[in-house]
Amino acid sequence: MINFYEASITCPICGNNTDVSLDASNGDQDFYEDCRQCCHPIHIHLHTNELTNRLEVIVNSDDD
């Protein structure tokens, strides 16, 4: 199984698309990535669904 992915996410503050690198080797994760346009932190929740072998990415603002 491949554990490293590139994804394009949308900043929940300004709507700008930002590319992020995702490392799914450690299972479920919560981390922050700063938007390259507005510099606000983006909260990213990474979930690996082992039953379907799918990677789920949930994005919200820092205050959600």
UniProtKB/TrEMBL annotation:
Gene source species? Motilimonas cestriensis
Q: What is this protein called?
A: CPXCG motif-containing cysteine-rich protein
Per its UniProt record, what Pfam families does this chain match?
Answer: Zn_ribbon_21 (PF14255)
Among InterPro entries, the record links this protein to: UCP037225 (IPR017143), zinc_ribbon_bacterial (IPR025990)
